[in-house]
Specification:
Strand content: under 5%
Order of helices and strands: HHHHH
Number of helices: 5
Helix content: over 70%
Largest sheet: none
Distance between the termini: 19 Å
Radius of gyration: 19 Å
Structural class: mainly alpha
Number of domains: 1
Number of strands: 0
């Protein structure tokens, strides 16, 4: 009986580490895509404007790690609380992480396309002024809503027995 619990706990920890790694990298990618829209632009807003300041912050560390550290850090804290309480829900917590990763991955492109329909490309082939935070409104809001739901669900599971 004790060996079965040890195996389940070890599998849960391994699954959690994998899920946190996937979430870490995907949230970092989404953060840069959504909150640093001028990272590959030929022209950028003037230095000192709020757009340029925000873009420069999220383009490199520590800005591109802001949501990652908050999200994955909260998940780790919830998991540690669950372990201290003697919870056997580690695999379930890892499953929630993997489900969140999958939803973030699947939802990103359709939401970005919907956002592009709301803010269509200009009629010219290349417009250096087209980049901007208007392209991040819907995908960023959806990403934050998914992450909030993920952490609330994790909290509920972590605090249960």
């Amino acid at each position: 009986m004790g060996g079965h619990r040890l195996l389940k706990r070890t599998a849960g920890i391994a699954a959690l580490l994998l899920s946190w790694t996937l979430l870490f990298f995907w949230l970092m990618i989404e953060t840069e895509l959504l909150f640093a829209p001028w990272d590959t632009a030929v022209t950028r807003p003037e230095i000192g404007t709020w757009q340029r300041t925000l873009n420069d912050f999220f383009e490199t560390s520590p800005g591109n790690l802001t949501f990652v550290v908050l999200g994955v850090g909260a998940s780790i804290a919830l998991t540690l609380a669950a372990i201290r309480r003697g919870s056997s829900n580690l695999l379930r917590l890892a499953g929630i992480n993997l489900l969140c990763f999958g939803v973030l991955l699947l939802v990103f492109t359709p939401v970005a396309l919907l956002n592009n329909a709301i803010f269509p490309y200009p009629p010219v082939l290349y417009d250096p002024t087209y980049y901007g935070y208007h392209r991040s409104v819907l995908p960023g809001g959806v990403m934050l809503a998914i992450c909030a739901g993920w952490l609330l669900w994790q909290r509920r599971v972590a605090l249960s027995r």
